[in-house]
Amino acid sequence: MPSAPASNPNAPDRWFPSRKPQPDPRLRLFCLPFAGGSASIYSSWQGGLPPGVELCAVQLPGRERRLMEKPIDNLPALVDALLPVLAPLLDRPFVFFGYSMGSRISLELTRRLYARNGPLPRGLVLAAAGAPRTADRKPIHHLPQDQFIEELRRYDGTPEEILQHRELLELLVPTLRADFALAWWENGPSPVKLDVPISVMGGTEDKHVPLTRLETWREETRHSDFRIRHFEGGHFFLRKQQAALLTALGEDLTRWMTTPA
C-alpha cells in the first residue's frame, strides 16, 4: 500500500480530525476505537457530554483521511506514536475511553504515563473488553484471506456490503489485520497496580466478551472507584445504546471532574 505524502506526523488535526478546541475545558475525553473503527464513531458525542468536556476522538493511521498511511500493528509502537501528540493536551484533567481494542490502547497509554511519572487520567472507561491478560480467544489477524473475512463476519462489526466488495476489502484488510493484532496484544500484568478509577461497560449478549470477564479489570487498579455497567445488546451495543452509554459516561465524567486529583 502506498504511503501518505510526508507531513508532520504530530499534527493535531491528523490525529483528532473532529476536535473543536474549547477555550477553557474542564476535562478532555480521548476516545479510542474498536478494531476497524475510526474517529467518526464518536463524531456525534459532543452534544451528549457534560458542559466543559472537550471531545478528542483519536484517528489512527490506515482509515478515513489517513487511509493511505500504513496501519500500526504493534501496541508499544502505537503508544510511542500517540504520546507526543497527546502530551500538549494533557495540561487539563483527562479521561481515556476505549471500546474493545481501544481499551487495550487506553490501558497501555496509562501504564506508559505512569512509568514516565507523567499526568494520569482522572479515570478509564473501558467498554466491550476484558482485561488484556485474559487471553481466552484465538488471534485471527494471521489467517488466510477467506478465513479472516469469515471471522470478520462472525464478529458482526464490518458491514456485509463491505465484506462483499473485493476491491474495497483490498484497501481495508491491512488495517483490519493490524487492528486485530492490537486487539489481541498481550499487555501482560502490570508490575504495579494503577491508582486510577475504572468504569467498565459490557453488552448483556456479547458472545465475545462474557459479562464475567468485565470483572477482570478490577485487577488493574487499587483505586476504590471501580464500577461495572451492563447494557442490552451484543459486542457493538454502543450502536443501539448510545444514549444510555452517554448518560453513564456523563455520570463518570461529572464525578471525576468534581473529585480532587
Automatic annotation (TrEMBL):
Biased composition (Low complexity): 1-12
Superkingdom of the source species: Bacteria
Coiled-coil boundaries: none
Region spans: Disordered: 1-22
One record GO biological process: lipid biosynthetic process
InterPro entries documented for this protein: AB_hydrolase_fold, TEII, Thioesterase
One matching Pfam family: Thioesterase
Stretches assigned to the Thioesterase domain: 28-249
Annotated family: Belongs to the thioesterase family.
Name assigned to this protein: Thioesterase domain-containing protein
Source organism of this protein record: Myxococcus stipitatus (strain DSM 14675 / JCM 12634 / Mx s8)
